[in-house]
Structure formats: C-alpha cells, structure tokens
Amino acid sequence: MKRFLIIMVVVIMSLSNAHAADYPIDQGSFAIEGSMYLRYQGGDLYENRAGDPLMTIIINPEIKYFISPGVYLGALFGLESYSQGSATADNILFGPSVGYYLNSDPMREIIKGSVYPFGSIFALFGSNEEGTAITSFGGRLGALYMLSDAVGVDFSLRMSRDSYQFNSGTSSGRTLTAGIGVMSFVY
C-alpha cells in the first residue's frame, strides 16, 4: 500500500508539472480567438425568384490550449446567420478543433511583428431553429500576425463539407470562405 501511495504521488506531481510558456504558441499557452467570415452568393444558383442574393455572416469564437509548441486543442463555437430578401435563418454549432502553428524561430525575443502560418481541422455539430441537424467538417489555412506580445490578427481560408439532415432527407455541400480574426494569448 505504501508503494502504491508513493507511485500515485509521483504520478500526480508529474501530471501537474506546470510549464511556463516563453512565447505565444509555446506549450502551456491559452488563446481566445474571434473570427468572422462574410459570404455573398449570387447568380442563378443562389438568388431567389426575386433576385435576392444569399448573404451569410459566420462568427467563430474559439478557445485554444497549446499542448506542445505550436500544437493546440480547441473548442469552437459557430454562429451562422443567413439572409435572403426577407427570409432569415440562424445556425448554432459547437465542436472540437486541433491545429498547428509553424514557428520558424522559437528563440526569437521580439514577438511583435512575428508571423505564424497555421493550419487546423474542425468538426462542428448543431442545429437551427427548425430543428435541422447540421454537421460540418473542415479546416483552415492562414497566417497569424502578432500586433503585440499577446495579441494577433489572423487571415485565413476556411474550407468545409456541410451536411443538413432534414425531415425529408439529407443535403450536403462544400464551402470555401475567407475571413479575419483577432486572437489574444495568455502565456
């Protein structure tokens, strides 16, 4: 029993070992990001009979924790608001994300002005006010530009495969959007 307690204390102490992060995307850093995407879809495919285009605003707040230098696990929230003429619809989605920020020089001393290219994948699950089940799997590619030691702005392309489960069946499609986001780090 005594040996078991000693082993448990050693395991707990090793798991709780804090790692002080030296730069924004280092192990142990937290980040909060808010991205926004605007999408305009027109033409015969998307316009209704009155000729109104489909307008979409996508807001994606995300919380990230860096498990090793450059690699993070996150929780992503999605709010999508559609409008076409007088018709509107809102989707609410939640899901996990995982990503990698490329750090070409981890020993750099000046963070402000640094650029970190990144890629991530995500899975979102949710529904809209009609009860339609929605799934979205995709990824992002972009670059983060550091405005200060703890705040950056990112520019990215977001690709996804979306599926809507209606009472009458399932419809799916692909989406490519460009967006901008602001990120704050705690390290």
Provide structural commentary.
The protein has one domain (31-186): Porin (Beta Barrel), CATH 2.40.160.20. Helices cover 7% and strands 63% of the residues. It contains 1 helix and 8 strands. It has an 8-stranded antiparallel barrel. A hairpin with a 4-residue loop joins strand 6 and strand 7 (151-166). The protein starts with a helix and ends with a strand.
Secondary-structure map with pairings?
Layout: H1 2-15, E1 30-41, E2 54-68, E3 71-84, E4 87-101, E5 115-128, E6 133-146, E7 151-166, E8 169-186
Antiparallel strand pairs: 1-2, 1-8, 2-3, 3-4, 4-5, 5-6, 6-7, 7-8
Shape: elongated
- Summed up, the domain count is 1
SSE string, helices as H and strands as E: HEEEEEEEE
CATH class: Mainly Beta
Radius of gyration: 21 Å
Instruction: Determine the CATH topology.
Output: Porin
Strand order of the largest sheet: 1-2-3-4-5-6-7-8
Largest beta sheet, briefly? 8 strands, antiparallel, barrel
By secondary-structure content and strand pairing, the structural class works out as: mainly beta
Q: How many beta strands in the DSSP annotation?
A: 8
CATH architecture level-2 label: Beta Barrel
Strand content: over 45%
Number of helices: 1
- Straight-line N-to-C gap: 39 Å
Mean pLDDT: 88
Helix fraction bin: under 10%
Model regions low in confidence, pLDDT < 50 over at least 5 residues: 12-17
